[in-house]
Specification:
269 residues
């Protein structure tokens, strides 16, 4: 799993490293035995593969702009509060948890075994903040929300662990209606919030991309429509409702576009 995590993306080794940090902080073994040998072997293999990949990298890394405002950081965490992130722990709790949960005491061994996972989850969930701070204190900006997808699994675990701490202290609940109704109510609220946000983004008045599409009221005919620029040509050509011609004045750019796709129709000079 560590090799897969490291090979999915260059930043995967950061999440793997944080797991090693969690083991280092919680293990009672000697200094050189705190981190499992299997994880260290995965790091060695991954670093070697990274060096190989970087020698084959044709494009320049980290040259495109990445928004890193405080609002972008908060938006990244806001996306974590999706329905599935909350529902999975609640659903598993309802299905698996037994009615005698109030009388069942967790052993010291169970608590000790969960410590590395808890610390790992906290570290993973803090990764966006770490890279957001790094982008402000250095010239290196790797703040891209899709790079932080593993934090979702950390959040799912933290929610499940928090629910367990809450429900294990509640008195015996004879009926499962309370957690089931609570789950349903929370699902509805999260669904409405998510739907409202998506509807706002798809609204023609707030979505810039709608203005790039030729209006449906425009008569469909074989008369060619000349369009300039990628944002105008490609969406309309993809829809295929009209005969669109791409107006490009640079011959070298035309060669690049032709290598990209032979279906692009250019305006003949």
């Amino acid at each position: 799993s560590h090799i897969c995590l490291c090979q999915v993306h260059y930043l995967g080794i950061i999440f793997s490293f944080l797991i090693g940090v969690a083991y280092f902080l919680t293990s009672k073994n000697r200094l050189w035995k705190k981190i499992p040998t299997g994880i260290i072997i995965c790091w060695i293999v991954s670093i070697g593969s990274y060096l190989f990949y970087l020698t084959r990298q044709q494009s320049v890394l980290n040259t495109w702009p990445k928004p890193n405002e405080l609002s972008d950081l908060l938006a990244g965490y806001y996306d974590s509060f999706l329905i599935i992130t909350i529902i999975i722990p609640l659903f598993l709790f309802i299905i698996i948890n037994k009615t005698d949960r109030a009388t069942k005491a967790r052993s010291i061994e169970e608590i000790q075994d969960s410590r590395p996972i808890i610390i790992t989850s906290f570290l993973w969930f803090s990764v966006p903040f770490m890279f957001w701070a790094l982008s402000h204190f250095s010239s290196l900006n790797l703040f891209v929300d899709r790079y932080f997808i593993p934090k979702e699994s950390a959040f799912i675990y933290l929610v499940a662990y928090g629910l367990n701490l809450i429900f294990i202290r509640l008195p015996m609940i004879k009926s499962m209606r309370i957690p089931i109704l609570g789950t349903f109510a929370l699902s509805v609220v999260l669904f409405l919030v998510s739907t409202k946000r998506s509807a706002f983004g798809l609204n023609k008045d707030t979505n810039y991309h709608h203005s790039l599409i030729i209006e449906e009221c425009y008569p469909i005919s074989k008369q060619p429509i000349i369009l300039e620029g990628d944002p105008r040509y490609f969406p309309n050509a993809y829809l295929g409702k009209n005969n669109c011609l791409f107006d490009v004045q640079n011959d070298r750019l035309i060669e690049v576009y032709q290598r990209f796709s032979s279906k692009i129709k250019f305006l003949k000079k």
